[in-house]
Write a structure and sequence with these properties.
The structure is a single chain. By secondary structure, the chain is an alpha/beta fold. The protein has a four-stranded parallel β-sheet with strand order 3-2-1-4, with helices on one face. The chain is about 35% helix and about 10% strand. It has eight helices and four strands; from the N terminus they run αααβαβααβααβ. The chain folds into two domains: about 120 residues, 3-Layer(aba) Sandwich (Rossmann fold), CATH 3.40.50; about 30 residues.
């Protein structure tokens, strides 16, 4: 029997291309709508911070660590892949009213879940220092919601329109001091 791995590269059948981003969006999108036990990572969070959180967010937490021990009052922190917002709302309590928490996720369903409780969390905490932005971690300079609005107003109708969109996507240059400090999860 012939070994397919020993065949020349042109004779081998190509491996199927995986849409990893689409699979992640789909899986976590479903997880935002109903609890997905297989997505959960067992993490023990400080219970005093959990008391302020809505049950829906607690039930739909799919985080992979607890970075809160690295966060201090007054800091600005960035949570990449913020999902339903649990860690952001916990960190909001730690950084307090003089701090700021920015959650970034690309999944519209997860963003809707995290944003759903912004006003309620502001009332519970007595301050609102959290925002959730749509963005791809690998391309944080691009504001995906502004791009969506731009494309809705100025759709691509011709290949020459792609250059116009690429110019829109180019971020203004920032200094390192104007960017929030990222907190790496353990």
């Amino acid at each position: 029997m012939d070994n397919p791995l020993s065949a020349s590269p042109s004779a081998r059948s190509p491996l199927p291309q995986l849409d990893v981003e689409g699979a992640v969006l789909d899986r976590y999108g479903h997880g935002a709508l109903a609890t997905e036990a297989a997505l959960c990572s067992p993490i023990d969070y400080d219970g005093r911070y959990l008391k302020a959180l809505p049950d829906e967010i607690l039930e739909r937490d799919y985080g992979c660590g607890d970075p809160t021990r690295f966060v201090r009052p007054g800091e600005t922190v960035l949570d990449l892949g913020s999902g339903g917002g649990k860690i952001c709302y916990i960190m909001a309590q730690i950084v307090g009213p003089s701090g700021r928490v920015i959650g970034v996720d690309f999944n519209d369903t997860m963003l809707a879940l995290s944003r759903k409780y912004l006003d309620e969390m502001g009332r519970r905490l007595g301050f609102l220092n959290v925002e959730f932005l749509k963005g791809r971690i690998q391309d944080l300079a691009l504001d995906c919601e502004k791009l969506d609005d731009y494309l809705a107003a100025q759709p691509i109708r011709h290949s020459s329109d792609l250059l116009r969109v690429r110019r829109f996507e180019e971020p203004p240059r920032e200094t390192a001091a104007s960017r929030p400090r990222a907190v790496a999860e353990p």
